[in-house]
Amino acid sequence: MSLVFTLASRNLFQDRLRFIASLIGIVFSVVLVMVQMGLYFGFGRMVTTVIDHASTDLWIVANGAKCFEDLSLLSTGTQNRLQAIDGVAEVIPVLVGYSAWMLPDGTMTPVFIIGSDFIAGGLSPWNVVEGTVQDLTAPGTVAVDRSYYGRLGVAGLGATAQIRGLPVTVGAVTDGIRSFTTTPYVFSDLGDARLYIGLPASFISHFLVRLKPKTDIELIRQDILANISGIQALTPSQFRDQSRSFWLFGTGAGAALFAGALLSVIVGTAIVAQTLYSSTKDHLYEFATLRAIGASDSYIYKVIMCQALLNAVIGFAIAALIGTAVAHFTAKSALQIVITPYLMIELFLLTVVMCVASAIAALLRVVRIDPAIVLTQ
Known about the structure:
single chain, alpha+beta, 6-stranded mixed β-barrel, two-stranded antiparallel sheet
């Protein structure tokens, strides 16, 4: 086996320029796939960021609501009916909706209001870097993300503005809470949120339901659905899957990203196949010599496969470094590229598959070599 590795590595490194060209093709292909899949996963994570950070056992939303940002409404009377269900410990209302934020120069920009009861432990902002969640219980205070300072015309904690003509003060600042729609999230107390959105007191958009210890979530979920009509009772996992399915496939955005990733795999395989085939073709005389001196076909196959695997390992290592750097630089961007350890493993296996599949094309060329060509040289 050591002789196979030695021969394969010498074939690869003999022509440095061709080896570098082959590596560039492989690295380009893997990085292209990595970025496309990273965008796909980043988008999928961003559309459920609020759901992921909510502390609840069940989400109660109106029938027809497909995601957290859906503005389908429920009656506030539903809260008492939910509280009457055996096994329910807390029912916390959440109100969301769009409003208009006025900048100091008089222009307006849309914002997405998220209102909840912070004293009851409702849907609070996370990654708070200035101020506290408790500060938001004061009337007219809101939490904004510092990545939207320029968009909202504020400079930090204590800054003032207006929402729907009502004065507000930035009482807390978060880091990294971004909306995939690019509309800034603004967290406020439930009562203030009603004023900012302009919604009557008889409506709410979501309920967070927390259950008593040692209760069967699915049993209570079915009990809620049997006793209250016109609602969906979803576990965080179900609501997350439903939201992600809607944004990724219902709107076509995710389909476009997935199609881009699939296209990058096809293009990448073609590039790798071309580079490995060219490399093998340039060494046809060497392979013919091996066959002329009695080397078996299986031995030659091992050499070519070893070359493919060496290309895969070296190319993937370089691509992984580039991909990690890209993910780091996009961590604060509007759409983060997310590269997980599982994605890395899958991409490494994909790289090996691409290189091996490409090597098969080269093998088909090698097996047709007539050893007699050695005598013509």
